[in-house]
Amino acid sequence: MYLNLRISLILIIVSVFSFAQTDNTATERNFFYDASSQKSMAVTLSHQILNTTGNNFLGQAYNGDGGYNFSFKLFLYKNLFIRYSGGRSSFDITNTELVGNYTKSRLGERFFSLGYEFVPLNKVKIGINASIYGTFALENTIENGEQRDTGNLRSYGLSLQYEVIRNLSIYSAFDFRQLKTNIEAPESLTSFFRKGDYNTFNIGICYAVGDKDVLSAVGILK
Fold it and tell me: How far apart are the C-alpha atoms of 34 and 82, rounded to whole Å?
């Protein structure tokens, strides 16, 4: 399921990229590209709300509390971008019988993603993105210290932003994320602890600078 979703998102991004290359009308704005709103890079800082889901250790024993996310986005060609995201959030433990005597957990996320931004309206951008590589660290607090789990992270998301003043936008996003863990468990519980699913909702600000993408700026593409 997740492989198919990733392939679909990548195909959409590649198709949009191909369309953008054939659109040489710099002054014309359409759903796929607006030359007047082109940026070089952007930084986003947002508050993050988590909601755990599914029949897995996160969905059954963890309750999302909140946290923050920071991202840096570089526009490669027109609205096609690569992004680094990092954040920290916390969970309350709701079922210690399932996962152990933890009192609280902190999640650290780090991942790279590819995406594209559409321009449906003036000052409005809608983005799609899919992670290409990500890791996480889950620090579980126990009475006498901490226990740490690590593994890989997947993320697929949608974003919406509105430019309130030049270069500064209100930013919101919804992502589906999955942790693939290295937790050692009895064979009967392996599937329960192998992954953890959760959704995130983010709201914050985005500050963007520049007016040329990377490949256009260095003269490789125009």
Answer: 19
